[in-house]
Amino acid sequence: MLKDYFTTAPAICAEAARTAEIGPYPSELNAVLSPEVTARAQQAIRNWPDYAATPLRSLDGLAGDLGLGAVLYKDESARFGLGSFKALGGAYAVLHLLAGKLSEELSREVSLEDIREGRYAAQAKAVTVCTATDGNHGRSVAWGARLAGCRCRIYIHKEVSEGRKRAMEELGARVVRVEGDYDHSVHFCAEEAAANGWFVVSDTSYEGYSDMPQQVMAGYSLMAAEILDVCGEAPPTHVFVQAGVGGLAAAVCAQMWMALGARRPRFVIVEPEHAACLLASARAGGPRRVQITEETLMAGLSCGEVSLLAWEVLARGVSDYLSISDAAVAPAMRMMAEGAAGGGRIEAGECSVSGVVALIAVCENPELRARIGLDETSRVLLLGSEGATDPEIYRSLIEAA
To answer: Domain spanning 90-202 has what CATH number?
Structure first.
């Protein structure tokens, strides 16, 4: 099957290994994500209208070709109609922010449900939330702002597609395009917010800013909880998880660590070679910034700075860091779209297939496969983080592959 889609096997561009901690979830990490914080977010989101757990698909064809026990794919392509797991994070954080702000202003408890049901619409209209994004997080924040009834301003960098820009505008956001890359847009957004009294709802944590990224990650943790609900007594042995700033990876790692303790899976980070800030951080032993000199096809992963909050979890919970090139992304997307991997025809966006590409590359490398511990008993989890969030780009890649 693989030879039908890849003229040569995908390859790992760079790698790094660290010693991950074993045993129960460290109590020190409760300051980053705790069972109470994640449970509160998960319960709130499960109560939203139209909530439904996204499917966990079995890629039996891929597992058979790679000699693995199972390959599981969490398909986020239909999450709340936004096409991405990001719907869980930004929107929840907006509601959390509004509830906290109005509770303080009115000296009485204002719940997330109060905000979502418009009971404080007049007060919410006076609030502006903002964020910087490659597309999916901004779409979630814009959707959350519409649910909350507040104003929304989104900053995008010059390489973000017009299709993704329009999707955020259709949700009522004012979208501002700035020069520079994603990291520049993050800092520009923070400066604009400080000057205007707006509230930043970012998915990345930096010095002095951690509350909103914590709530975003708490929302993401629901993905891991849904996965464990389905897996029951047979949880994944390995998780290949893509990373931009690291929030998704940290949320899934933390949730599975809390739930499974020493039985938690081995975590493998996957990044584009042009934006491998976590791999650089792993090599250096602390957060590092990498310069984005060329944009990756995996647009949502084009981040040069690690989230400081996410790094606290990843530094202790992740054992392997890999970077991949863009070359195999489109063929992997076509393989998924045609159902060749198993699990039916799957709409997998550019970021969604990064784990697929990395898993194939690792399995084709005997030394790396042995080091990561993949064999016929392995149950590997891949996170299908997005669908066709820009349908025009998606179609062009599938047709060209």
So the answer is: 3.40.50.1100
d(CA 125, CA 142): 14
From residue 254, alpha-carbon distances to 264, 339, 387, 398 in Å are 10, 31, 24, 34
Q: What's the rounded Cα separation, in Å, for the pair 368 and 238? A: 14
Which residues belong to the active site? Answer: 86, 134
Q: Are strands 266-272 and 238-242 parallel, antiparallel or unpaired?
A: parallel
Task: Enter the CATH code of domain 2-85+213-400.
Answer: 3.40.50.1100
User: Using CA atoms, how far apart are residues 91 and 129, in angstroms rounded to an integer?
Assistant: 11
Domain-wise residue ranges, the chain: 2-85+213-400, 90-202
The reported pTM is 0.95
SS3 369: helix
Q: What whole-number distance in Å separates Cα of residue 87 and Cα of residue 137? A: 7
Q: Encode pLDDT of 163-213 as tens digits.
A: 999 999 999 999 999 988 888 999 999 999 999 999 999 999 989 999 999
User: DSSP assignment of 119-159, as one string?
Assistant: TTHHHHTT-EEEEEESSHHHHHHHHHHHHHT-EEEEEEETT
Quote the tokens at residue 145: 């702002």
CA proximity to 58, closest of 376, 385, 382, 358: 382
Closest CA to 386 of 114, 21, 165, 74: 74
Domains 2-85+213-400 and 90-202 share a fold: yes
Strands 174-178 and 199-200: unpaired
